[in-house]
Amino acid sequence: MDIKYVSTTCPYCGTGCGFNLVVRNGKVFDVAHWQRAPVNGGKLCPKGRYAHEFIKSPDRLTKPLIKKDGEFVEATWAEAYDLIAEKFRSYKPAEMACLSSARASNEENYLMQKFARVALKTPHVDHCARLCHSSTVAGLAAVFGSGAMTNSIMDIADSRCIFVLGSNTFEQHPLIARSIVRARQSGAKVIVADPRNTPTARQADLYMPFVSGTDVAVLNGLMQEIIRNGWEDKEFIARRTKDFGKLKEAVMKDAYSLDNVSKTTGIPVESLRTAAEWIAKAEAAALIYSMGITQHTTGVDNVKSTANLMMLTGNLGRPGTGVNPLRGQNNVQGACDMGCLPNVYSGYQKVNDEAARKKMIDAWGVEDIAEGRVGYTVTEMINILADNPGELKAMYIMGENPMLSDPDLRHVEEALKNLEFLVVQDIFLTETAELADVVLPAACYAEKDGTQTNTERRVQRWKKAQQAPGEAKEDWQIICDLGAKMGYPEQFAFKGPEEIFNEVAAVTPSYHGMSYARLDPDGLHWPCPTAEHPGTPILHREKFAMPDGLGVFSPIEWKPPAEVPDAEYPYVLTTGRVIWQWHTGTMTRRSWSLEKEAPTGWIEINTEDARELGILDNEVVRASTRRGSIDILARVTPEIIRGVMFIPFHYKECAANLLTHNALDPVARIPEYKACAVKVEKIAEV
User: Which CATH superfamily, name and number, covers 3-56?
Assistant: First the structure.
């Protein structure tokens, strides 16, 4: 019996844990600890521990499928490629769009945006960062000049005060939570603000339950208290920032007195006062957030406010400090870095900068690429498909499942059905793939080489452990085949992922100094501009990435969510994850060890709210918003504040996103998943 161990990186959240795939006779059959893994030191959460199980699911796609008379029939690759190329050639560039994937490798994401811009000549390319952290990219770039996590996972342990806002870290990013535990064990204070008393909140020295959607009010109130007491870092503000006067004018308004913030948010005045003092007086304070901050119509405002607080207290550029957005998916950072966004090429080089556009034309060896205008975001694509049928006619989706991940799913289904031609490339026949005209079977993470970039900007390796099932191909190979078929064989003539990565490094300034040889075994943090550079675990040590090197304070006013409770829909609905499942459940729900732990969804209802509604624990109830209704189990608990309800978003049989709405942040175009109005009723007995 031939057994070997192949070290690789986890395909789930953005932490970037390493583990060994155990291979027996050419097939992966288990996961083993990789003790020297740089991020997690061999420790794994449940999803990582069972990351081998979905690989061998009988549901894996193994052959191309073409829909004929409403039914899928198996096809050859040649038939699928011919049909796709014929159809794509029949459309104008502006009539086509591509969705890349935060689950695919850097190399594959780079190729997808290159395919969109070179082969299809379309500016319309995006991916699911739009739905999770596009407000981070926009907000932090406006303040610091870089839209990424400022510090490393490990140096969170050096913090003396950690403020967790909009993140259930212990369930969403358990191995990052270990750094919080280490900090607390060495004396750090931990503050958690959340509508739910989550496993993360239960680890806090100060837990502040508050109403979802009032984040800016919380942050402005803390800043007013800090300034009022003279606790701001005056030297840091003077030396490294600008526009402090504008911030001060905004946050010192009466609306942000602790009394008024308490009324708005539900947080007691004394808790706000304590939090402000702990953050301001700590030798090193870190702020950690996730989608509880970003998924709002005020997502960019929320992000800028977190940056305001950290600049105000001088908590940037040092170990144990920083603004630390935790990415939800394994390669959402990398997909952004690779230019899978409608406004930038790789390395955030702007598409409407003529010098950047000419650079890419020259690098790619073509006469022209997509016009230098900002294309549509995925949320805009869906609205256009629904409201202006015929403007967009064809779409190529790699590894995304908008039929479960996007808000207002009935609207999404209507939109996708208005497409004339849809290609979906995935490892399973997802809810989105079922709507496709052509389905292309792809390899999963264990069946290919490549890289991914974790939440702390660490670029890490994937290593191939087995062959893909049946006729499934690696995503990069499929895109290269299609690129050649579309008339660009030289531009897509790569023999493997390492060649693709070399091109990435050549055209992407923050990756210039990277190579596969340098990435083994610990990876490198970008920016890494030269082959001798050690990488950059902590950003902004001496100056910010702005032209003048100064961080920019932003005067932000609190605005309520786009939809607030009323007499008909009297509660606030928020959504999120649980430790056993991941996003649309495509992989975790095909892992038997994980599925048995959390096999269906529920709605959390405060005990007092449930009593008033006459609802019992574990009773099936009907949750309704203006978008639709679902029947779902009630979980009655005092661990969520009154007036707020929570549904995990992983379950197609009680899909939370049938209820959420697609009101968008005006800058980042991210939907407001975290706050809408809902009513819950007992289901009448027949």
Answer: ADC-like domains (2.20.25.90)
